Amino acid sequence: MPERIAVVGVSGGEPVGKEARAAIEAATVVAGAPRHLRTLAPIGARLLPIDGPLVDVLDEIEHERGGVCVLASGDPGFFGIVRVLAERAGPDRLDVHPAPSSVSLAFARLGIPWDDAAVISAHGRALSDAARHAIRHGKVAVLTAPAAPPEALGRELLALGAPHRRAAVCTHLGEADERVDITTLRELAAGTFDARSVVVLLDGDGEAIATAPTLEWGRPEGRFAAREGLVTKAEVRAVVLGKLALPDAGVVWDVGAGSGSVAIEIAALAPRLRVFAVEQHAPDAARVAANARAHGVAIDLVHGTAPDTLDALPDPDRIFLGGGGLAVLDAALARLRPRGRIAATFAAFDRAAAAYQRLGNLAEISVARGKPLAGGVRLEAENPVFVLWGPEP
Questions:
Q1: DSSP bridge partners of 369
Q2: What pLDDT score does 393 carry?
Q3: Contact 100, 76 (CB under 8 A)
Q4: Which residues sit opposite 108 in a β-bridge?
Q5: CA atoms within 13 A on the CB side of 15
Q6: Contact by Cβ (8 Å): 70, 32
Q7: Are 265 and 219 a contacting pair, CB within 8 Å?
Q8: Phi and psi at residue 295, to the nearest 5°
Q9: What is the pLDDT of residue 212?
Q10: What's the confidence (pLDDT) of residue 214?
């Protein structure tokens, strides 16, 4: 492994600053995209083109003893090669000379600030996952890829009911053939664009500073369309979410989703989770989809009867059971990942007692809400609900 590795960012076909140029000239081995090597590599240096599996180039760098320089577009520490080089060689061996990132250039071309923007990469991940994250933000930049081009992103966003009014596809930034196309989401989905672009999504004029995210759970029942009031009560929902101890990422099932209130609150609290809402009644399933759009979250709706429909779903890290009984609970437990957790609600104590033998924790939630009474207030009791959870992590 070389003692030092220079990592130089390139913008507009050139490194930025005298130190970056000196690092290139001093190298005896230069790695980078072929277009960078053709114009920047010093005469006599051995060239390592990065045009195939990156691990092959990393292996060659690891066996070098001379001066190594790695060329990368933009800021190599921003969704770039610095991450893998630091993991392989250690950050103390890297001398990083960044250029402006593609995202900073994209917002610069649009003339709007981006300190309040979310940045999401579609490289090496499912495009649907990137799109679900994008709809959570009013101002967002998405780094697209050959397997996830801008037009495919547009189609995913339309399917999710994304709120963004405008999209800017920014390509070859800083280069002679730079291009910025301002479109609507429909135009984005119907077009054909360079796969390696930055897509900036805006829900308004893009000039206002985005509001800070807030944590909210136990949302009032009135904010969810539901059949005959069949929605998990706000106070019960708040307890259920606490007992689930949601992870930052993973898979969640909401089985017997009803209005989708629990699935929607989970998706809002932890947007990196993939949330499946399973509902057997078609009108209720349609309401789940409408409620998710109204609350600005993305969930995967599964219309079918449990436990049969569960076979096609990925193994879950967390499960909420709002319906289906003990047969569904047993099927869910069989699929739960290690250190996973289930929360379930029951209205009948006999079913709750049987579920307790499987889960190990039970609490009765009794809520009385204030109602006006002749200039005063009275308490009106709701039906008690039994909340169960387990296994313990």
A1: 380
A2: 60
A3: no
A4: none
A5: 27
A6: yes
A7: yes
A8: -95, 0
A9: 39
A10: 56
Rounded distance between C-alpha atoms, residue 313 and residue 310, angstroms: 5
3-state secondary structure the chain: CCCCEEEEEEECCEECCHHHHHHHHCCCEEEECHHHHHHHCCCCCEEEECCCCHHHHHHHHHCCCCCEEEEEECCCCCCCCHHHHHHHHCHHHEEEECCCCHHHHHHHHHCCCCCCCEEEECCCCCHHHHHHHHCCCCEEEEECECCECHHHHHHHHHHCCCCCCEEEEEECCCCCCCEEEEECHHHHHHCCCCCCEEEEEECCCCCCCCCCCCCCCCCCHHHCCCHHHCCCCHHHHHHHHHHHCCCCCEEEEEECCCCCHHHHHHHHHCCCEEEEEEECCHHHHHHHHHHHHHHCCCCEEEECCCCHHHHHCCCCCEEEECCCHHHHHHHHHHHCCCCCEEEEEECCHHHHHHHHHHHCCEEEECCEEEEEECCEEEEEECCCEEEEEECCC
What's the token pair of residue 141?
């930049």
End-to-end CA gap in the chain: 42
Q: What is the pTM of this model?
A: 0.59
- Using an 8 Å Cβ cutoff, are 126 and 145 in contact? no
Q: How many residues does the chain have?
A: 393
Nearest to 106 by CA among 140, 81, 136: 140
Residue 374 Rama label (left phi>0; alpha psi -120 to 50; beta):
left
Place of tokens 């990422």: 249
CA atoms of 391 and 263, how far apart (whole Å): 20
pLDDT the model gives residue 213: 45
Q: Which residues pair with 30 in a beta bridge?
A: 47, 69
Residue 255 structure tokens = 């089985």
- The token duo for 181 is 């196309």
Pairing of the two strands 29-32 and 118-121: unpaired
Q: What is the pLDDT of residue 204?
A: 59
Q: Residue 353's pLDDT is what?
A: 94
pLDDT at 100: 93
Q: Is the dihedral of CA 342, 343, 345, 348 positive or negative?
A: positive
Residues of the chain with pLDDT under 50: 206-213
- CA distance readout (Å), 186 to 89, 154, 286, 355: 45, 7, 23, 48
